[in-house]
Amino acid sequence: MTSQELTEQIFKKKSFLCVGLDTDLERIPTYLLSEKDPVFSFNKAIIDATHEYCVAYKPNIAFYEALGVDGWKSLKKTINYLHSEYPDLYTIADAKRGDIGNTSRMYAKAFFEDLGFDSVTVAPYMGKDSVEPFLEFTNKHTILLALTSNEGAFDFQTLKTGDDDLYKKVIKTSKDWQNSENLMYVVGATKAEYLADIRKIIPENFLLVPGVGAQGGSLEEVCKYGITKNVGLLVNSSRKIIYASDSSNFAEIAAAKAEAIQNQMAQELEKL
């Protein structure tokens, strides 16, 4: 999916919500554990209930890898289901990969070719030759970790390097990489006040913004500093939606949570 196609979906659905599929067997309704594939059963129910309120889904790959081969099968069934039933939804592999060039190329093939994701999150610490293999793929996006929502972000990301904070240096440097037009960036909602400076560096790139919901980030603040005329935002909510209930009607309650966020987003879009 291209950025233009994603933007069209955002305005069509009046939403820039991304639902995170951080599916944990210890947190899903217990009755699902008797299913042949409880992870996929949970994901399918969440997707069917929330798809009209969001434009993207983001499986957190660690939750699937932790289950071994069965988890990887559940992930593949989930992405195949999205492709077959809801092909207009954008997909993000939240994998945070990054390694030397030939290894990164294999990671890219795994997520873009085998699984067919539209995008993958990547860690930039090893520099351009660890990221550019991902950027080679047509109509695929590489989502670079820039300024994350966790407490430890301040350990390194805001350290000064010359006149710039490190996260700003990362963003500025990445703009010169080959096929950098395929870059998006992760900027945490809990760091919303930093978005104004980030938008001075990358005024048009899409930003994936986690941290709205369980981590306490403000959607209004994110939009105040980060939204563009073409929106340029994918705001992720995971636990607040998918674990809103552990009862038999968990999917219905998840849908209500997603709809509430979508309604807020529609109000923000009206301001453009």
Could you give a quick summary of the protein structure above?
The protein is α/β, with parallel strands linked by helices and 272 residues long.
Question: In words, what does this structure look like?
Answer:
By secondary structure, this protein is of the alpha/beta class. It is built from twelve helices and ten strands. The chain has one domain (3-270): Alpha-Beta Barrel (TIM Barrel). It has helices at 3-13, 38-50, 61-65, 68-85, 101-114, 128-135, 153-156, 166-174, 195-201, 219-226, 239-242, 250-270; strands at residues 17-21, 56-59, 90-97, 119-122, 141-147, 160-161, 164-165, 183-187, 207-209, 233-237. The strands form two sheets. Strands 1-2-3-4-5-8-9-10 form an eight-stranded parallel β-barrel, surrounded by seven helices. A two-stranded antiparallel sheet has the order 6-7. Helix 5 links the parallel strand 3 and strand 4 (119-122). The longest helix is centred in the last third of the chain and has 21 residues, at 250-270.
